[in-house]
Amino acid sequence: MAQLTFLAFLFLATSFSLTTCKTTIDDLGPLEIGLRQYFQTGEATDEFLETLHSYEFPYLLREGMETAYDNPTVCYMCNLVVDLVIGERFLGLTRDTLVKEATLLCTHLKIENERVCKGAIELNIDVFLYAIDNYANFTSNRICGSILQAQSCPTGDAFEWSIDLPSGNSPERPKPNDTQVPTFTILQISDIHYDPNYTPNGNADCGEPICCQGDQGKPATPEDACGYWTDYRNGDSPWHLVEETVRQAKTQKFDYAYYTGDIISHRIWETSIENNTEAITKLYSYFKDTLGVPVYPIFGNHEPHPLNVWPTDKVSDSFNIKWLFELAAKHWSDLIGEDISETVLKGGYYTVSPRPGFRIIGVNSNVGYTDNWWLIYDDFDPYGQLQWLVDTLKKAEDDNESVHILTHVPTGTSSSLKVWNREYTKIIERFSNTITGHFNGHTHKDEFYVYYNSSNPTQAIGVVFNGASVTPFTSSNPSFKYYYVDETTFNLVDYDEWTFNLTLANSQDSSKLPEWYKLYSFAEAYGVDNLLPSEVDKLLYKMTKDHSLLDNYFKFKYRNGDDGIKNGCNDSCKKNLLCSIVTTLYGENAQCNRFIDLYDS
Prior knowledge:
The chain is an alpha/beta fold. Helix content is 39%, strand content 12%. The chain is globular.
């Protein structure tokens, strides 16, 4: 019924792009009246549907909503509708009715087409109903304040907790004396998003969250046809692209491989345990058979069914994702070469030491992703992971080990729940000298992020490097990276990124392999000696003066993807790039403002 108008929006909150339309609270009178009447009667009159059509929100919750819609209006409507849901649920409103009416509203508001609306709502509605039915004093602020964090919706007294940290700071580690240090090599591959339904010459202009599927009709024009290798326009990775990426990666020697998450495609409205299991098993088995080195994987937010949801043992067994943890425990232990099942079975995280003095920690940062609906039920340190991380880093500190941390969802964005983001950042700062490498994925963009000391805001204490993605989704060329790591200190010395031009590859006969090339070396492109925080900090100051460096960063972000870079990057774009790099705690803008002032001056 109408109370799910906004929940219909929420169920479709994945990672896509929006239209640019503004609505204010003053304009919402007819819609609010219509919602309340529909809520009471359950009947969609012609007048009500006409009102809905005048407030259409195409692709409402695709990526970028906060820049396209009026935040107070969004929060107001969310709280209104969720309060109606809660009240009516207590009066016995059924699941089937909610699904039916939410699908009607989602479709008539043109958020997505009917099959996407219905599929996504069917997959996710039970989480919300469970939370409403079982959470004492449940409020709309708890839903709207977390899921719509990007719109700064009020949270009330929710989402406030802290992790116990040991006092002091980790001792400083040795730094390289020169650039000619012995190194070993780590391959990073990220965000493959293997699509078993990918159809070359399929429809790339399909209007759904992912295109190039066999059931989306024929392209209207030759220009709308999907390429053989994949497509800039909401296309994921066919298996032959996965094989080709691994083939090219193996043309150089590397000692370890990091896979920073996301195996499942963006066909988010009809995932299943069976299909996810098949795709996950296929990729991990392929890595095991072909890469020939230890592989250290972590979860992406797409691996569960439904995507994004990570229920803890505090909820009903009917929601558990034991199947995923068991699957990962088996395959990850095989890939790494030792049994890591104990902590993987607890929450999808682990630690190993592949050589003396060196430790790798795989973190399941997806639990703090705002699209993890279970956060509205219980957000306190899911799976006890952050406290485990503190204990693991403290032992590494005591044992004089250097640590690389692998995560999927980066902090600093509106997608990372602020309290989880804050506590994780405190941990990173406390153990900044112990952690010599940070790696993540998720955004599909070649980016880096710099952590600064909260008590000395001009001191850089950590740099996180994003592995970009094999999928072009969206507008980027497929890519992977080789990192060169100091054998003694385990600091990062440099990395190379490799890619190919998707337009060119698709223009050639499908039997011809893509023409891979080294896009850039970080040290060479940016004129730094290594990838230490102090060196990358110097680069940021150079970027504020030499804006051509930000032009290069913009091109690298999309791996020179024709579709991504075609409009260039103006001053506003460059400032946004700077802010993104230095904002590692969502809502804290001091570093952003500091570097913007330097840019302007």
